Amino acid sequence: MKNQLVMIGNGMAGARCIEEIIKRQPDLYDITMIGDEPYPNYNRIMLSNVLQGKTSFDEININDWAWYEANRIRLISNEHVTRIRREDRQIETDKGTIVSYDTLIIATGSSAFILPVPGHDLEGVVGFRTIADTEAMMESAKTYKKAVVIGGGLLGLEAARGLLDRGMDVHVVHLLSDLMEMQLDHAAATLLKRDLEKQGMKFLMEKKTTEIYGEDRVQGIRFEDGTSVECDLVVMAVGIRPNVAIAREAGLEVNRAIRVNDRMQTSDPAIYAVGECAEHRGIAYGLVAPLYEQGAVLADHLTGKPTTGYQGSILSTQLKVAGCDLFSGGEIHPCENTKAIVVQDECLGTYKKVLVRDNKVVGVVLYGDASDGTRLFSMLKKQSDISEFTNASVLHKAGEESGLDVATMNADETVCGCNGVTKGSIVGAILEHGLTTFNEVKTITKAGGSCGKCRGMVEAILAHTLGDKFDASAEANGMCGCTLLSRDEVVAAIKEKGLHTPREVRNVLGFKHEEGCSKCRPALNYYLRMLRPNEYEDDKASRFVNERMEGNIQKDGTFSVIPRMYGGTTTPEDLIRIGEVAKKYNVPLVKITGAARVGLYGVNKEDVPKVWADLEMRSGYAYSKSLRNVKSCVGAQFCRFGTQDSLGLGIRLEKEIEMVDTPHKMKMGVSGCPRNCAEVLTKDFGVVCVENGYQLYVGGNGGTEVRECDSLMTVTTEDEVILMAKAYVQMYRETGIYGERTAPWVERVGVDTVRMTLADQAQAAALAAKFEHARDTYKEAWGEALVNKQRTALYTVEKR
């Protein structure tokens, strides 16, 4: 007979612990879970989204009823455990159910703290902790119009936002002078209060509630200073209280919460505790990420897996409070031996503070722009030496700032703080289950399943792991998940409304996420650069990591360096230099690539700029969404079958088209005769040399879905080939969807449309002229990067 594992509680921390046990040894225990709510396991973090009308109760289920059945878990719902009989190893519920256990886990969580003031038991006074609380607020908002939320922390502000959205007049009452004082310093809290007031929230700061008055239902609140405010609904959001009564009555050691050791074991060796009801080394954690860490440690212990035990957690919080982004981690307030780096932009309403001690980050507070949170918190956890980092930068160009590259993140770094999901877990799930979309990753790993702030990072990991196989548009009805507008509608609006920056586009067009997502950020950067080549400054930070770093990152974190070799040709001097550089920097692999280049693979990150400087060659753009290469045969110069100088034409095409951004990567080819040695009929643009001229082909693809080119036209001179190539690429640039190869683009717009457009000499000439104008705004990537210290600083390796 299997050991009987019983869990008191069916909340987020407890259920995650059971998931971890099942993941390790699914058949080790007979498992019983007892919850006092009539629901399966759900995400309490998402209750504010339900209140605000962004989602439904059904959509916040973490594990539905079928999950318990599939994993052979006995779930006793809507029953409250009233007694633990330690001597008999049994528990008893309020409905008389008795369950025996060999191992017991207490995961009773916590309850909303209700201020014990007169009137706290009146109708219309609720906490904000459960589905029932949320339903009560939603019902009240249908009838009543005045609400008071007591508590200016996260839950209180989220409740206030939800009640505002439901048409209520809302006052937030807070005991202290600053909102969210546990996460924000005074400056950030001031910005938050200002932004929330703009949304319609009203604040009563430094107010101590002494009475809730009314007859049958609440009518108002009185404060210690003699003032009062009328209301029909009071929401208590003043904190939580660990549910420890059952443990205390059973004689377990209890302080503020149930005391546990590093194995999450209580004073009774057969009983464990996890979650908000547990106290480890004097700390009872209230954030979900450390609670999930506790569950994983306990799962290791209970399944016999070696573990060092739970060592405590360094806390961080990344939130969107009523639409306002913030991040905090580590220490919040400076002391005698810390120094602060502070950058505040009153124009944008952003505030960033980093606390430093002994050249190491010990605290982070960000408001308005929390994009640096993961990167800075990673430095805090690693205790990185920051002596070589630039402390602050003012009025730098957008592309000169970079957040944490997913390629350089360690596998154990947390991506989803709400659900405690690491980069390694996400990558493992992608590879193991063949995941290709954000929603699939969310389903398997739960990353992004709560507040959604990490969606961009999750999609960036998908893009890095899958490369060109990742399509962020696969689950979006519009251009991306942030908007229902199509690509054409967004581009038209940019033109009509005179929009000039991605942020302006997202704000004016009402994108769901102000910061955008991993699909629209690079797409908007591309569209604006394409539409406004002279005005728009390329935002490198919005590009995918390989483009941002001007090189492909390999699976071990090293880089490939692939210089341009026009038409696959080189010189003895360049070959010697490549060999000398490869030897100097101990490059482990030197290979002829499929694009007829000599590639250096395995270059250490810090050596990449030095390698490029020593090579003194142009970038081959092997990482870019632009022309990668033009494949050609030797043609009439050497081949007895060659009809034209295909090699010379290939080199000329490459020089004329290179560098300019396109919706996706492009490959071209020129064959010197119909024998087609350059395999041009599966290229984005192909040329077959014949006796009387040049046959042009478009829309081919030699990748996972092979598509043979469509015939475009036949021209008689090289100059016509070049003109048609430029016109064709510009047409693709102007009408292609970002991330769309020419093969699906030709099928979408129709090959006849492409033919008719380019057959019109005036239209073709106009398109070619626009392409040339755009090309004049580009500079060779590595020649530009090597003189830009902020760009080369991206290759600095942190000291450990």
Structure explained in plain terms:
The protein has 800 residues and is an alpha/beta fold. Helices cover 31% and strands 21% of the residues. α6 (186-198) links the parallel β11 (169-174) and β12 (202-205). The longest helix is centred in the C-terminal third of the chain and has 18 residues, at 718-735. The protein is elongated and about 95 Å long. The protein starts with a strand and ends in an 8-residue tail after the last helix. Residues 394-403 have low confidence and may be disordered.
Characteristics:
single chain, 800 residues, alpha/beta, FAD/NAD(P)-binding domain, Enolase-like, domain 1, 25 helices, FAD
Topology:
Elements: E1 3-8, H1 12-24, E2 29-34, H2 47-51, H3 65-70, E3 73-76, E4 81-85, E5 90-93, E6 98-100, E7 103-106, E8 110-112, E9 125-127, H4 131-143, E10 146-150, H5 154-165, E11 169-174, H6 186-198, E12 202-205, E13 209-214, E14 218-223, E15 228-230, E16 233-236, E17 240-242, H7 245-249, E18 258-260, E19 271-273, E20 278-280, H8 288-302, E21 316-321, E22 324-330, E23 339-345, E24 350-357, E25 360-367, H9 373-382, E26 414-416, E27 421-422, H10 423-433, H11 438-445, H12 455-466, H13 487-497, H14 502-508, H15 520-531, H16 545-548, E28 559-561, H17 572-584, E29 589-592, E30 598-603, H18 608-615, E31 627-632, H19 646-657, E32 666-671, E33 685-690, E34 693-698, E35 710-715, H20 718-735, H21 742-749, H22 751-759, H23 761-775, H24 781-785, H25 789-792
Parallel strand pairs: 1-2, 1-7, 2-3, 7-19, 9-16, 10-11, 10-16, 11-12, 18-20, 31-32, 32-33
Antiparallel strand pairs: 4-5, 5-6, 8-17, 13-14, 14-15, 21-22, 22-25, 23-24, 24-25, 26-27, 28-30, 29-30, 33-34, 34-35
Helix pairs in contact: 1-8, 10-12, 19-20, 20-23
